[in-house]
């Protein structure tokens, strides 16, 4: 997909919706989470509006969990971006040459008077030891708080991360994580990268490129760390 020319635009708060989406990779099996709308019959990456007061990054992981059922956290990868380096290391975000910046941003009208602004992020399924099946997690809904997993450790290499998943380990897909009737229509699965991109191409070239950039970032990070 092409990148549009820069533009001038302004929207006040009552005419703006900020949203986040995510490509969730299971690194060990080289697969990515893709959702399917069982009623309208199309494939997509999980996304949705952020809650008031919520960071965009946290919203990406929350929406990824609610719409797909897979617990996830942002994955720092090498990527080109235009943001300045932080003055001091951050607990989440930049780790040396790796960052959790959004890989795409989209504008779309939502009706005649509302501007929808969507940021796309790269994430991974979390290790088995970081999946507490607490009552809060099992009962997650629109009225119970989302439990955010610990961030990707700044000193952890990808090869070390791969070793945390046992052989033939399949990340757990939690049932009933959708928060409304619409999300109850969603199905999700882990698909090989090429198959996922083929299915997403029927819906959005940007979603395809989110997956492409994410996986290329994973491979490049592994090369850098060797």
TrEMBL record:
Superkingdom of this protein's organism: Eukaryota
Keyword Cytoplasm tagged: no
Segments crossing the lipid bilayer: none
Domain Nudix hydrolase: 15-162
The entry's keywords: Hydrolase
Origin species: Rhizodiscina lignyota
Keyword Cell inner membrane among UniProt keywords: no
Protein name, as recorded: Nudix hydrolase domain-containing protein
Matching InterPro entries: NUDIX_hydrolase-like_dom_sf (IPR015797), NUDIX_hydrolase_CS (IPR020084), NUDIX_hydrolase_dom (IPR000086)
Molecular function per GO: hydrolase activity
Lineage of producing organism: Eukaryota, Fungi, Dikarya, Ascomycota, Pezizomycotina
